[in-house]
């Protein structure tokens, strides 16, 4: 049974010493993974209290709390945006509720990202990747080597292959990518590893906050950039990668290629989820997306991922070197995020197959079908992923 906002407000006063609540309201639609309330304190400060409704949501919230606590004041000072601060927690039945500060800003929606905001997102991600890895080790969080990242990708690929549902041409493409040594010669960095459009709050075309730190670790920086391939607009994606490159440099020449592979493997993970849960609907959905990737990369299936992206990556790098702005265009209407009050995990209106069109003739076209599949798989993944510490943005987004 859902907990009322008044019950949660009373719990918050027990969780945070000295908190004097003078106003409380239900937060969100009441249909998510958490019971939540927006609280107003006597001093005018606003807070969010959240209590998980399931074991999966509790695990996500606990992991997020570990990540947030690892982000010390010194670490946070290196970031050009804010992150939530946990004020206290209190037991409620078999679980616990967590109180954190309320962060203002509009939740980012994939279909509405323009080149300006994409550049700010690239800058924000680069700042995360520039953090010293030592604090991750000190917090006891995972530290993956490049070889371990490769091994993880191979594991997903092998398990997906065992289902017998992945097109052989796509399996060959993945195998060639995992066997390409230069692709895996990269320096692991601090990564969030749970980024999606609604991880970001923005105002005036700039990122103001990043939410959801349950995946914090040292790993492949491409993991944090893969979702950007779902924008469906090459200039938007290019703006994000170009901004990232300006901050981080161009030493990781195969960053975008690995991001493509990571994005394609997200669809494989969706397939595996469908087989594990024995959901025919999910399996059919994933198979459709996998075929969309085959259709969209038809001219590049013999290339180990790099062929579909290298020209686009070079174009972005050339624009940066020449100081040329990346012009904005209208993003794809397909969105992988859900606005406040919408049903999470809803499938974009057009199927990836129907948007893939004819065989691609260039790198931008080669990624168009992938973009649709990435957007769809991200939305599908949200259907089974507990809503993390991003819900505190949704009320603010309505009034921003």
UniProtKB/TrEMBL annotation:
This is Aminoglycoside phosphotransferase domain-containing protein. Pfam families: APH. It comes from Arenivirga flava. Residues 318-353, 371-386 have a biased composition (Low complexity). Residues 318-400 are annotated as: Disordered. Residues 38-252 form the Aminoglycoside phosphotransferase domain. Gene3D superfamilies: 3.90.1200.10. InterPro entries: Aminoglycoside_PTrfase (IPR002575), Kinase-like_dom_sf (IPR011009).
């Amino acid at each position: 049974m859902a907990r009322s906002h008044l019950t949660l407000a009373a719990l918050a006063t027990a969780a945070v010493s000295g908190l004097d609540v003078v106003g409380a309201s239900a937060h969100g639609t009441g249909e998510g993974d958490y019971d939540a309330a927006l609280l107003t304190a006597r001093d005018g400060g606003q807070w969010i209290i959240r209590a998980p409704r399931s074991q999966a949501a509790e695990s996500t919230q606990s992991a997020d709390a570990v990540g947030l606590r690892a982000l010390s004041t010194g670490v946070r000072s290196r970031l050009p945006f804010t992150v939530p601060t946990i004020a206290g927690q209190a037991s409620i039945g078999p679980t616990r509720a967590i109180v954190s500060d309320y962060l203002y800003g509009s939740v980012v929606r994939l279909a509405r990202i323009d080149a300006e905001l994409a550049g700010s997102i690239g800058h924000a991600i680069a700042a995360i990747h520039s953090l010293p890895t030592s604090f991750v080790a000190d917090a006891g969080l995972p530290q993956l080597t490049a070889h371990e990242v490769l091994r993880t990708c191979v594991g997903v690929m092998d398990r997906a292959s065992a289902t017998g549902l992945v097109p052989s041409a796509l399996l060959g493409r993945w195998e060639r990518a995992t066997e390409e040594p230069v692709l895996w010669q990269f320096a692991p960095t601090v990564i969030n590893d749970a980024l999606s459009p609604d991880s970001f709050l923005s105002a005036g075309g700039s990122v103001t906050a990043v939410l959801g730190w349950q995946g914090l670790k040292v790993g492949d920086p491409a993991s944090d950039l893969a979702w950007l391939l779902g924008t469906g607009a090459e200039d938007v994606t290019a703006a994000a990668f170009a901004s990232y490159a300006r901050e981080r440099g161009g030493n990781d020449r195969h960053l975008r290629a690995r991001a493509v592979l990571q994005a394609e493997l997200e669809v494989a993970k969706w397939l595996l989820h469908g087989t594990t849960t024995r959901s025919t609907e999910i399996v059919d959905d994933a198979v459709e997306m996998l075929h969309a990737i085959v259709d969209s990369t038809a001219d590049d299936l013999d290339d180990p991922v790099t062929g579909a992206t290298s020209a686009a990556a070079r174009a972005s790098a050339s624009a940066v070197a020449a100081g040329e702005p990346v012009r904005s265009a209208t993003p794809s209407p397909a969105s992988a995020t859900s606005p406040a009050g919408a049903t999470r995990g809803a499938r974009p209106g057009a199927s990836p197959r129907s948007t893939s069109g004819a065989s691609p003739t260039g790198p931008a076209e080669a990624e168009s079908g992938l973009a649709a599949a990435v957007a769809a798989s991200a939305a599908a993944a949200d259907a089974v992923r507990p809503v993390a510490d991003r819900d505190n943005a949704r009320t603010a987004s309505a009034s921003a």
